[in-house]
Specification:
elongated; alpha+beta; 49% helix; seven-stranded mixed beta sheet
């Protein structure tokens, strides 16, 4: 993909009110035009055949940028990821089974390592990023204190966090939030591309069927030149000719005409005007003990209250946590390999 002009738009929207529609000056209108061109370049460039395509796509682009900017602003402050933080921060403690799991997750992040290795970042001491992980709950049986009596084989809910991934690292908290927003843009464009691809596949299927019918039609019309008895194919020929005519008309509507490109604009606008249908974030609250057992809201049992952001991408969901990663906490590459060899 080309350099993403959404970055400048997010930089502005991440500092503005989510409820207030932006009033665009000339510079900002130029920015929107650049963003529209970026969307067109990365979906279907033939959209430029359509008159006033910029005006038709601009409202959808602004709507998605506003929505994603709102998601960015709703993210909590970053947590520091380190062995020390595992002992001091109850939230970090809840996300990892042991302190050794923290550096392992840091070491496994190719994006984080690439950030620290990139000389353009000038040896930045820290990286701000997003940690994404899966949350699961399962019933276990253990001991529990009920009405002052210690009981065994009590059904409990164990909360587990796994498949930790660190993505979108940047040198500052603000830049990391913009990078996270850009991941949202890629998600929306992936949805658009899937829809455009489905239309193009439909065109390919129609063209293939039309070619097959054309071959069949020629065979039927050439019948009678051999020595076999001549059959009457009049009805079948008429049906095939009618189907070829319908397929040809549909192909003309789908392929690269201004009318068909209007359909692509409709597909793009449908996605970008309703980004919440494809990418959403909601708040999840729960209390867990140091052993990862879910604790009832009004229970007096000691517990950590977690306020989590659950990110939903279509049918997929994950917990998203902004984090701060110190270069000094990043395991050396050789240390990572040696650690892995223990399990081989």
């Amino acid at each position: 993909m080309a350099i993403n002009p959404f970055k400048a738009m997010f930089s502005r929207l991440s500092r503005s009110s989510a409820a207030k529609a932006p009033v665009l000056d000339e510079r900002q209108r130029n920015l929107v035009e650049r963003v529209v061109e970026f969307v067109v370049d990365n979906t279907e460039p033939r959209i430029r055949l359509v008159a006033r395509y910029q005006d038709k796509l601009a409202p959808a682009v602004i709507r998605s940028a506003q929505y994603l900017g709102g998601l960015i602003r709703s993210l909590p402050q970053p947590l520091e990821l380190s062995r020390e933080a595992w002992g001091d921060d109850l939230s970090v403690n809840a996300f990892f089974a042991t302190s050794a799991d923290v550096p392992r997750v840091l070491a496994r992040s190719a994006e984080l390592r690439a950030f620290f290795d990139d000389p353009r970042h000038g040896g930045a001491p820290d990286a701000f990023a997003l940690m994404v992980m899966e949350k699961s709950e399962r019933t276990v049986y253990g001991t529990a204190l009920e009405n002052g009596i210690l009981k065994s084989d009590v059904a409990q809910v164990n909360v587990n966090f796994s498949a930790h991934r660190i993505v979108a690292p940047a040198a500052t908290k603000e830049d990391a939030r913009i990078e996270i927003g850009l991941r949202g843009v890629r998600r929306l464009l992936d949805v658009v591309l899937a829809r455009v691809g489905a239309v193009q596949q439909q065109a390919a299927d129609l063209a293939e069927r039309r070619a097959f019918l054309g071959t069949r039609l020629r065979m039927l019309k050439s019948a009678g030149f051999g020595i076999e008895a001549v059959a009457d194919h009049t009805r079948e020929i008429a049906e095939i000719e009618a189907q070829i005519a319908r397929d040809t008309k549909e192909l003309q509507q789908i392929k690269g005409t201004p009318r068909s490109m209007e359909g692509y604009i409709g597909q793009i606008s449908e996605v970008l005007l309703a980004p919440e249908q494809h990418l959403a974030m909601s708040e999840v609250r729960l209390r867990v003990s140091r052993l990862g057992i879910k604790v009832a809201e009004h229970s007096s049992e000691p517990a950590t209250e977690l306020v989590l952001s659950e990110l939903r991408l279509g049918e997929l969901s994950a917990i998203a946590v902004p984090v701060k990663c110190r270069r000094s906490a990043m395991p050396a590459q050789r240390g990572l390999l040696a650690d892995a060899e223990k399990y081989l």
